[in-house]
């Protein structure tokens, strides 16, 4: 199956508006349909995923791109809660963060992250990383059906 052969619902969880804008631009630049949603912190991400409050009508994401370092509820806690939830644990979560700390990588995989990708600093490398994530989850991997 080729990249972009199916439409994906993507949830970007990141408090850095610049990074959100760049990831969105990278996804939109692929020229394939992507329904992109943004949560600016862990609380909002959990409300979106659980379809609570203002997010009662939210679609179930096919993939979550999760930053680790956020205010209020951080990425590690979000990952742990998502992967412990019977309704949510099958959603692929890619930790997409600036941290290269071995402790963060180990903790993320221990909490069942589906992948850990360090955000490149260079714009072309960031776009390439997003493109590779999209190629894998949008065209190569078999994803659970939306509930």
Task: Summarize the entry for a quick read.
The chain has 147 residues and is α/β, with parallel strands linked by helices. Helix content is 39%, strand content 17%.
Structural account:
The protein has 147 residues and is an alpha/beta fold. It has one domain: Rossmann fold. 39% of the residues lie in helices and 17% in strands. The protein has five helices and five strands, in the order E-H-E-H-E-H-E-H-E-H. Helix 2 packs parallel to helix 3. The protein is globular. The model has no long low-confidence stretch (mean pLDDT 92).
Tell me the radius of gyration: 14 Å
Counting helices, strands and paired strands, the structural category is alpha/beta
Report the CATH topology name.
Rossmann fold
The largest β sheet comes out as:
5 strands, parallel
DSSP summary: helix tally: 5
* Relevant CATH superfamily: Response regulator
Element order, helices and strands? Answer: EHEHEHEHEH
Note poorly predicted spans. Answer: none
Beta strands, count: 5
Widest β-sheet, arrangement of strands: 2-1-3-4-5
C-alpha geometry: globular
By CATH, the architecture is named 3-Layer(aba) Sandwich
From the structure above, extract its key features.
147 residues; alpha/beta; Rossmann fold
């Amino acid at each position: 199956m080729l990249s972009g052969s199916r439409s994906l619902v993507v949830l970007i969880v990141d408090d850095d508006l610049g990074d959100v804008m760049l990831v969105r631009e990278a996804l939109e630049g692929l020229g394939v349909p992507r329904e992109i949603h943004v949560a600016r912190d862990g609380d909002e991400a959990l409300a979106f995923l659980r379809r609570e409050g203002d997010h009662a009508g939210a679609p179930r994401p096919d993939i979550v791109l999760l930053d680790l370092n956020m205010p209020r509820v951080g990425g590690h806690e979000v990952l742990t809660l998502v992967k412990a939830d019977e309704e949510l644990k099958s959603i692929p979560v890619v930790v997409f963060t600036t941290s290269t700390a071995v402790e963060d990588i180990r903790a993320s995989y221990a909490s069942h992250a589906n992948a850990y990708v360090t955000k490149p600093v260079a714009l072309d490398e960031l776009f390439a990383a997003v493109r590779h994530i999209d190629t894998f989850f949008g065209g190569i991997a078999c994803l659970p059906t939306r509930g």
